Amino acid sequence: MSYEVENSALLKWVHDTAAWCTPDDIHWCDGSDEEYDSLMAHMTESGMATPLQKRPHSYLFRSDPSDVARVEARTFISTPNKDDAGPTNNWIAPDQLKATLRHLFHGCMRGRTMYVIPYSMGPLDSPFSIIGVEISDSPYVVCNMRIMTRMGKDVIEHLGAEGTFYPALHSVGSEQDVSLASPMWPCADTDHKYIAHFPEERTIWSYGSGYGGNALLGKKSLSLRIASYVARQEGWMAEHMLILRLTNPQGRRFHIAAAFPSACGKTNLAMIEPTLPGWKAECLGDDIAWMMAGKDGRLWAINPEAGFFGVAPGTSYATNPAAMDTVRRNAIFTNCALTDDGDVWWEGINGSTPGHLIDWKGHDWTPENKDLAAHPNARFTAAMTECPVLSPDWEDPAGVPIDIFIFGGRRAGVVPLVTESIDWDHGVFMGATAASETTAAATGAVGNLRRDPFAMTPFCGYNMADYFQHWFDMGDVLGDKAPRIYYVNWFRKSSSGKWLWPGYGDNSRVLKWICERLEGKASAVATPIGNIPSVNDLDMDGLDWSHEAVEAILRVDAEAWKQEVLSIEQFFAQFGDRLPARLRDQLLKLAQRLNT
Hints:
The structure is a single chain. This protein is of the alpha+beta class. Helix 11 (424-432) runs antiparallel to helix 12 (464-478). The chain contains 16 helices and 31 strands. It has three domains: 8-30 and 68-234, Phosphoenolpyruvate Carboxykinase, domain 1 (3-Layer(aba) Sandwich), CATH 3.40.449.10; 238-303 and 394-594, Alpha-Beta Complex (Phosphoenolpyruvate Carboxykinase, domain 3); 309-384, Phosphoenolpyruvate Carboxykinase, domain 2. The radius of gyration is 24 Å and the shape is globular. The longest helix has 17 residues, at 218-234. Strands 1, 4, 5, 6, 7, 8, 9 and 10 form an eight-stranded mixed β-sheet that branches.
């Protein structure tokens, strides 16, 4: 150990876990450059990591084909009362789940090093921040956590002798469980994967997966599933939201928090480069927002992360130039293809398709292959500080004041380009009924429509009906200082299947209308589903886009929305009497407006 640990609770937990998991060695991570480089050298020597000749200090990893995404079917919220987990979560009683996991974890680290990873979600000096300690047997996890969090000995010093930490235990699985997996990417078979959360104890146990949010336990597990539970108890919010600062030509700043399901353009919006003259955007975070009411009565937010874990396919200099510049150096890539000259490649990247690649499974690939060269959920890990449009205030311990909430999803029809809520309760209803076509970020079928309230379906650490009520409660606290709420859909298509909106940087045209609504400068048209702009309300200067296409993307089809009401009724039914009455009231009001 290169530093002193005074926290007796932490020392005891590490000692007890080592006695249980029986590693050959224990390494306390210090977060240094030397430690990172040493681990990468070790993984390169073993064949797990491939250095990229074209990108300084960057590496490519290939996961086992069974370990490529979140495993929602194997993710559990374990509370004593099943109803407290709710119908949208998988539940196993704590005693039963712990008994299963104790058996699996017993001796699981034999032959490996046990890494103790102290980390902070949020700047160490922020009142928002939470300290976690993850124990893992994966050096890949250590290197990713160093990028994604504030990690190392500074966290231990801040924790001190009496500080509180959230414990998380992770293993890729025992030798017996990983016998069928790639020797360079150990993981258990699907039936032996468990991502278990015990909210009342504020602990996480994850077994059998080395991928992303299943293994980087500061991310979805702590920052959303556990933090959402804690936030409700303590009166704040932990949300699956990007944070964006938008500055208009007059110098006024607007801070936006926006929720979209994974792989639905969240990172693109977080790093947007506006196409409108005089408008400037700065990124504060692309995935998670922790928000508290400030002394001024407004809602203040921080991004608790220190890095990006973004979807690579579809990212290019045309779609997200800032992201492309972010990963030019010091990045980790997972499940991308490898070019013959030592660079990464994925579908949708700039330029022509190479004549030969090594695909994400490690096989030779040519354009004649039917399979994709990169996995649809291939990822990049990069530090926030590598982002060229990063806000200088991204680590302000006080956070930034949120003016606007935006919800959205991937819908080919029904939902217009942008809708303004009638009031806070209607905005909560919009968030609670959000729906999207599923993507490759989670295992299962792609393209199915599912309700994904607030983009939190996989991440809410308690009964979602109670989560809805918490949103109403926060609105009551904030009163007239609550952010305005909007819903967007960049993905609407024509009857022939063509996109109706250009998206990407031109999404700033929608953001401009939203900001001008706050200033009282822009008009809107009242519809049964909320307020929308007219064609003339959107700034379309310089855009070669037909008047008819804009009308089509703003159209509200009352008959289609009547079918949507029926779908929402079915979705709400699963929550029974626990569903807030204010949501039922909003559904009734929508039905009445559609019938008048």
